[in-house]
Each structure stands twice: as C-alpha cells, then as structure tokens.
Amino acid sequence: MQTKIHSFIESCTNIFIGYIVAIASQLLIFPIFDIHISITDNLMIGVWFTVISIIRSYVLRRWFTKRTERTCL
User: Fold this and answer.
1) CA–CA separation, 51 and 45 (whole Å)
2) Whose CA is closest to 25, among 9, 38, 42?
3) Structure confidence at residue 62 (pLDDT)
4) pLDDT at residue 37, as a whole number
5) C or N terminus of the chain, fewer CB within 10 Å?
6) Phi-psi region of 2 (alpha: psi -120 to 50; beta: other; left: phi over 0)
7) DSSP labels for the chain?
8) What is the pLDDT of residue 10?
9) Are 57 and 14 in contact (CB under 8 A)?
10) pLDDT recorded at residue 73
11) What is the structure's pLDDT at 7?
12) 40 and 26 in contact (C-beta within 8 Å)?
C-alpha cells in the first residue's frame, strides 16, 4: 500500500520532471509559432500549470489507491 506522503512525493517528482521538459519544449516550440514571451512569463505560466498538475496527480493517485484497497479486501 502506498502512503499519502509517498503519493505526494511521487507526484511532485513526476511533475518536476514534466515542468523541466515543458519549459524546454516551450523555449523550442513557441518561436516556431511566432509566440514570444519573456522567460519570466514562461516560467510563471509553467508554475501555475505545475500546481494544477500536482493536485490532479495526487488526487488521481489517492483515488486509484483507495479503489485498489477496496478491491483487495
């Protein structure tokens, strides 16, 4: 069984790696579509989506864990 703190740490690690990949992707892809924003704005947009992703990932993980525990009983 996965603890709540382990779920949170796993979600944060996953989202942190995704954040780095997303920022790198935005820096490469945005100019192709003629989208030009400052690095600060780029990072802040990433922060908002990261917070949303952490919450989403944590809730889904807890839901699946609870569902799995119920089936195993």
Assistant:
1) 10
2) 42
3) 87
4) 93
5) C
6) beta
7) ---HHHHHHHHHHHHHHHHHHHHHHHHHHGGGGT----HHHHHHHHHHHHHHHHHHHHHHHHHHHHHHHHHH-
8) 84
9) yes
10) 61
11) 81
12) no
Distance between CA atoms of residues 31 and 35, nearest Å: 5
| The residue to which tokens 């603890």 are assigned | 3
State how far the alpha carbon of 45 is from the alpha carbons of 15, 50, 62, 72, in Å: 14, 9, 26, 41
Type of residue found at 10? E
User: Alpha-carbon distance 62 to 8, whole Å?
Assistant: 9
**Tokens of residue 48, six digits:** 């908002």
* Total residue count of the chain as it appears in this document: 73
| pLDDT tens-digit readout, 17-71 | 988 988 998 899 999 999 999 999 999 988 888 888 878 888 988 898 888 877 7
What is the structure's pLDDT at 67?
83
